[in-house]
Design goal:
The complex is a heterodimer of chains A (331) and B (492). With 331 residues, chain A is mainly alpha-helical. Chain A has 14 helices and four strands. Chain A starts with 15 loop residues before the first helix and ends with a helix. With 492 residues, chain B is α/β, with parallel strands linked by helices. Chain B is built from 17 helices and 19 strands. The chains are: A mainly alpha (331), B alpha/beta (492). The interface between A and B is large, with 46 and 60 residues.
């Protein structure tokens, strides 16, 4: 099989050929940007007020929630375990933990810490199961369902309202006109990208996704890496939970309906290879922005909900197909 | 007569085949040779209908052949027996035959009668049609595969390294079958890496290099030099580097196995490995030859006995101690296929530094430059994905990655399987120089020439136990062959 690949640089026909393959890589790297540019230009030309700063900032803010959750899930995707389907339930859980503890008189910081810790523990449990060979999709699906049931039971399906809301500034406030949520989102993207490419754990995460067997043989602790990836995703979900409580001043069971699928779509649309071992973290955040922009445009145009869902799904599918085709062509 | 005319195939910028023309006559075995990346596999894929050529034509007895799909290729009489054996081992021989003929209703008795003559034609008459394929030797499975193709009225048989994974006895079976088929006036295209097979069964030789026809001649006009020159485009000084004389005091063993047994090693094994030694384990597939390597690396659990590392305590060795292990399946676990070459090369060093802390990708890339130089991996390849490399270069990555960790013991399974002759020589030279620097090299191989040419000492395995240990200088090829096939010297 390896035979079909030229061994001798001479057969690459020098220079020109290398340029061509570089061009292809360039194309693959930029492929995910095509929809956002097309969409942006189209929207700016046809819709009044789309291109204005306030609207663009609004888009980034609206994509922050999906985006933060998506960069967490991207860690799971890149380490080769596809996605977590329990994001929405984990976000709900941490929202409830925070709101309930604060309502009961716990200091804000402590309540936040507790929400993060509970979520990290939940992520660790799922990561442990998956690292021991359970299928990540099925495991997180079942875990999310069980978790959601437990939370609803414990909270008696009540809505917990925060009055006063101590973190309204975090969820809804702005700094120099920029929404705080969007700032947190961008900071997390930067931190995540840095961790992935310039820390030992980040690079080992990528290698684990690229080939788990080889990673194991060279001494990378693949099981721990997988667990860490799930903890990272869980922490991202917890941050999302806390931020939205800050934004809407309450925790209720259906506050994140549809988040998981948006997150998965964001990972795919951003161009992170679903089989793992490739891709940068920022792409997940970027995918979230594309999806939000799409929703924004369709809302402005008055497209109805069903069509919006359909288009979102089609976009994710199209990017997936496009990447697969490019990959097989470059073989 | 099978005629291939001006066949070209380009993968993007890579010209895998360019203007290849040759013909293979009926009743003769035509060998197809070439290094990895020379275009053999591409040619095979074209003939089997898996890929369509960019240009060119293939005709059989004067009329063009339709190669637009594997099914059509087979219907026009071209059958390709792939390198990976594709008979299903949990079915019986007859059932495997039926698979090929989807139109037939599954009737075991009829199937048995139907496949019998084909089996007999290949000298497999003694194999009952209702035998489970899993009970056959690998060579017999290979023949079942060929027989299955005959049942489809194949006129052209393309055999892609049919003997690569076989032991000597099975190789003889396949050779006999091939001769028989040639005498039935079939066209046979025989792809091989084993040069000694030319003399044994081939009539004509076609050599590809860099996607072009490099040379073609009759076997009687062939010399090893001519073949090798055609394959690699230059003279090969020597395949195996000269031995080092171990003079004076022998160093203390670095690895000692004491009465070790594993799931696939039933007799307790005690051997030791000294720094600077190149030791081979030899045997047929499944004879237990890889067990010492796996026991030392910890891949296989020891059921009893102990592995000692260094002169001191009975601590089990590990990657951290400098034990490097390359499995026989480098595609599976030898490197990171979709990442750059330098990332695979630096992976063990990265893993050894633990999980916490920062790294600079640029510095990592630079730090393995020396290793890549030493492994003779061209700079142009270092930023490329491993998946774009040929078998030889990929194996260099697989072995070379360990050098970033300065291992003391190198364990290699089938170090040159699927590696072309030029890269083989480079790998041997490298391993030898590592040994000279004090590394202990233990390799498992079923290639007798490699064992005798490169090993200094050989541990011979048969039936899941070690049956003999000797310096390779004291063994002839025939003796070694007898040992590994019979587990002793008293021949039947």
């Amino acid at each position: 099989m390896a035979d079909s690949k030229a061994d001798n640089p001479a057969s690459f026909g020098k220079g020109g050929a290398d340029e061509k393959s570089a061009e292809r890589k360039w194309l693959r790297d930029l492929a995910p940007f095509i929809p956002i540019i097309a969409l942006g230009v189209l929207a700016a030309l046809t819709i009044d007020g789309f291109g204005t700063a306030p609207n663009l900032i609004a888009i980034v803010q609206a994509s922050a929630i999906t985006g933060i959750a998506a960069i967490g899930v991207a860690a799971i995707t890149i380490c080769g375990k596809f996605v977590s389907l329990s994001i929405e339930q984990q976000a709900v859980t941490s929202a409830y933990v925070f709101a309930a503890l604060y309502s009961a008189g716990t200091p804000v910081a402590l309540a936040m810490l507790a929400a993060l810790l509970v979520s990290a523990l939940l992520g660790l449990i799922q990561g442990y199961l998956v690292s021991r060979g359970l299928n990540p999709i099925v495991t997180t699906l079942a875990f999310g369902s069980a978790l959601f049931g437990t939370v609803v039971l414990l909270a008696d399906n009540r809505t917990i309202t925060l009055n006063p809301n101590p973190i309204a500034w975090l969820g809804g406030g702005t700094t120099f006109g920029v929404p705080n949520q969007a700032i947190i989102f961008l900071i997390l993207v930067a931190i995540g990208s840095f961790l992935l490419s310039r820390t030992k754990i980040g690079r080992q995460l990528v290698l684990t996704g690229a080939n788990p067997e080889a990673a194991e043989l060279v001494g990378i602790p693949t099981k721990r890496i997988v667990m860490i990836a799930f903890v990272v995703a869980a922490l991202a979900a917890a941050i999302v939970g806390i931020l939205v409580v800050g934004q809407v001043s309450q925790a209720k069971s259906d506050m994140f309906r549809g988040l998981t699928i948006d997150v998965v779509a964001a990972v795919l649309v951003g161009g992170i290879a679903i089989q793992g071992g490739e891709g940068q973290l920022w792409r997940a955040g970027y995918g979230a922005i594309v999806l939000t922009m799409l929703s924004n445009v369709m809302l402005l145009l008055g497209v109805d909900a069903g069509a919006r869902e359909l288009l979102k799904g089609l976009l994710a599918g199209a990017v997936l197909i496009f990447m697969t085709v490019l990959r097989s062509r470059s073989r | 007569m099978l005629e291939i005319e001006n066949l070209s195939k380009a993968y993007g910028p890579v010209q895998a085949l360019s203007g290849v023309s040759f013909s293979a006559e009926r009743g003769r075995v035509t060998a197809l040779l070439g290094e990895n990346g020379a275009g053999k596999s591409t040619l095979v894929k074209v003939l089997s209908g898996l890929i369509s050529p960019s240009s060119g034509e293939v005709s059989l007895d004067g009329s063009p052949v339709d190669l637009s799909s594997p099914e059509r290729a087979l219907r026009s009489g071209i059958a390709v027996v792939q390198q990976e054996i594709s008979v299903l081992s949990n079915l019986t021989v007859a059932e495997n035959f039926l698979l090929a003929h989807s139109s037939r209703v599954l009737n075991r008795r009829l199937a048995a009668d139907w496949c019998k003559p084909y089996l007999e034609r290949l000298g497999l008459g003694r194999v009952p049609a209702n035998a489970s394929v899993s009970d056959l030797t690998i060579g017999e499975r290979q023949l079942v595969e060929i027989a299955r193709m005959l049942a489809q009225d194949a006129e052209v048989l393309v055999l892609d390294e049919p003997t690569a994974a076989l032991a000597d006895h099975d190789i003889e079976l396949v050779h006999e079958a091939v001769r028989r088929l040639a005498s039935e006036n079939k066209v046979i295209l025989y792809i091989t890496h084993r040069l000694n097979e030319l003399e044994e069964i081939c009539d004509d030789v076609v050599v590809l290099r860099n996607g072009q026809l490099a040379d073609r001649f009759k076997t009687q006009d062939a010399s090893i030099n001519r073949v090798v020159h055609a394959m690699i485009g230059r003279e090969l000084e020597e395949l195996y580097p000269p031995r080092i004389e171990h003079s004076g005091q022998q160093p203390e063993p670095i690895i000692r196995l004491e009465d070790v047994t594993t799931d696939d090693l039933i007799l307790p094994l005690s051997v030791s490995l000294r720094p600077g030694e190149v030791v081979a384990t030899c045997g047929q597939l499944g004879s237990g030859l890889v067990e010492p390597l796996r026991a030392i690396s910890g891949i296989a659990e020891t059921r009893s006995g102990r592995v000692y590392f260094g002169s001191a305590n009975g601590k089990a060795p590990s990657v951290v101690d400098g034990v490097a292990y390359c499995s026989e399946d480098r595609q599976h676990d030898g490197f990171f296929n979709n990442r750059s070459v330098w990332e695979s090369l630096s992976a063990p060093a990265l893993a050894a530094t633990g999980l916490w802390g920062f790294v600079s990708p640029q510095r990592m890339r630079k730090s393995v430059g020396g290793i890549a130089d030493r492994m003779t991996i061209l700079p142009a390849y270092r930023d490329r994905q491993v998946s774009a490399l040929s078998g030889g270069n990929a194996q260099k990555v697989s072995i070379g990655k360990w050098l970033s960790n300065n291992p003391q013991v190198l364990l290699l399974e089938e170090p040159t399987r699927g590696v072309d002759i030029g890269a083989r020589a480079e790998i041997y030279a490298l391993l030898r120089s590592l040994a000279e620097e004090g590394m202990a090299v233990l390799f498992a191989s079923s290639d007798l020439d490699e064992v005798l040419g490169f090993g200094e000492r050989v541990l011979i395995f048969h039936g899941n136990r070690m049956v003999h240990e000797a310096p390779t200088g004291e063994l002839s090829r025939d003796t070694l062959a007898t040992w590994i096939t019979h587990g002793g010297l008293e021949s039947r």
